[in-house]
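Work Package 4 report. The design task specified in the project plan requires that, given a folded chain encoded as structure tokens, an amino acid be chosen for each position. We show below one input record used in the internal validation round.
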């Protein structure tokens, strides 16, 4: 989607006030931890039960990622129109939803770029319904799949990268990627200032286990000579949206294809694949 976004980044940022702001509670020690069962005795019984019900409802609003969900149930993100899908995910989860005018300005190039007020008004009938349908579709789905390492993707598309800078670890029989044990701390922003944040992902998704010695030797040889390329698919769950424009997500699975040349080299060939 190409349009004169101009102030659209500000339009998205103005939604920050609509997002839910949850402050994580400190984890108490086991010895001093309060009971998780509400005190339903005495004059505070009703209040205690109401509080417990509210906490359960709050937890239900943001279910955690479930790695057992079949990959067939994930939606493959289409980035033909760029990363506008990320804005849809963010907006579909704010409360209350923005006005129809704000939705049209964010998601309709025709509407946003039309200077004539009457023509602009006439566009509402054709432009708003598909926007409403898309918002519902994204609100109803929390599991997505996105390609990584796709250097030939559409202009502006979000394409995370996996790179191997650390040598083979003989103790863990694995290759650490993205330089750190917490390897998904980098955010990926679109041109409407909406950020995809994988920092909820655990360290288990930061190392490639390779037990076969011959395969490990080949990977290490290519890595050491800066010839190793990696492409594949990240499967993730949308956990929450912070401040109206930061999509917090957890990576649940990774499919990695390793190439005998960097990703940008058209001569590169896959020599092995892994599923994490």
């Amino acid at each position: 989607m190409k349009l004169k976004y101009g102030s659209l980044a500000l339009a998205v940022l103005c939604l920050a006030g609509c997002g839910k702001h949850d402050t994580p509670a400190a984890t108490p020690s086991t010895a001093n931890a309060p009971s998780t069962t509400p005190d339903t005795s005495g004059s505070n019984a009703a209040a205690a039960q109401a509080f417990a019900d509210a906490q359960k409802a709050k937890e239900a609003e943001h279910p955690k990622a479930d790695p057992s969900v079949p990959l067939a149930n994930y939606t493959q993100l289409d980035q033909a129109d760029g990363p506008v899908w990320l804005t849809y995910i963010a907006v579909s989860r704010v409360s209350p939803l923005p006005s129809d005018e704000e939705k049209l300005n964010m998601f309709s190039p025709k509407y946003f770029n039309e200077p004539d007020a009457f023509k602009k008004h006439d566009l509402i009938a054709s432009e708003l319904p598909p926007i409403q349908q898309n918002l519902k579709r994204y609100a109803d789905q929390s599991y997505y799949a996105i390609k990584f390492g796709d250097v030939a993707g559409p202009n502006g598309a979000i394409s995370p990268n996996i790179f191997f800078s650390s040598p083979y670890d003989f103790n863990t029989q694995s290759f650490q990627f993205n330089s750190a044990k917490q390897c998904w701390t980098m955010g990926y922003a679109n041109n409407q200032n909406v950020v995809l944040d994988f920092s909820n992902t655990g360290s288990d998704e930061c190392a490639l286990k390779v037990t076969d010695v011959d395969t490990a030797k080949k990977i290490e040889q290519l890595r050491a000579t800066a010839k190793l390329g990696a492409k594949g698919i990240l499967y993730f769950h949308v956990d929450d949206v912070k401040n109206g424009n930061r999509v917090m997500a957890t990576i649940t699975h990774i499919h990695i294809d390793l190439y005998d040349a960097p990703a940008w080299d058209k001569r590169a060939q896959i020599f092995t694949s892994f599923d994490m």
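Strands lie at 75-76, 143-148, 174-176, 187-189, 195-197, 207-209, 229-242, 246-259, 270-275. Validation will be extended to a larger panel in the next phase.
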